[in-house]
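Bit of a strange request maybe. I'm writing a small parser for C-alpha cell strings and I need a real example to test against, not something I typed by hand. Could someone generate the C-alpha cells for this chain?
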Amino acid sequence: MRYFLDCEFNGFDGPLIAIALVPEVDGLGPFYAVLPCHRPQRWVAEHVMPKLGAPAQSRADVVAGLAAYLAGDPEPVLVADWPEDIAHAAALLVFKGRRMLPQARFELVNLPGFDTASMSALPHNALADARALRAEVLARKALALGDVAA
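Reply from user aminoacidic:
Good idea to test on real output. This should exercise your parser:
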C-alpha cells in the first residue's frame, strides 16, 4: 500500500524534526512523530516548531513506532514530493546497524503546481502536509482516470 510522506527538518539538509505517513486507504490511521530539535534555525523556530502539536520522542522510539506502523504491510511504498523527505524516512528504517523492515519502496513524485504551503490545512506541520499530498495525488489520479466525482 502507498503511504504519503512528509517531514519537517531543521533547515535544508538539517536534522529531522517530524515525520508523517498518511495511508492511501481511507479509515486507516496515520503515523506522526516528533523528534527533539535543539537550536532550531530562526525560520524553523517561527514557522515549524509552533505547529508540531505533539511531544518530542527519542529517535529510538520513533524508529520503533515507524517499524511497528509499517510491519503489517508486506510491501509498503512511501510517496513523497521532496527528496529530503525520502532520505529522512529511509534513515529511520535503520537502527543500530539493523534494518527495521524486510522491504520498503520509495516513490518521488513530480507535481507541477502543487505547493504544500498553500494547499495544506496547517502548512509546515508534517501530518497536515502529508494529508495535502495524499489529496493532491489521489485527485490527479482520479482526473487522469476521468473520474470527475472524486
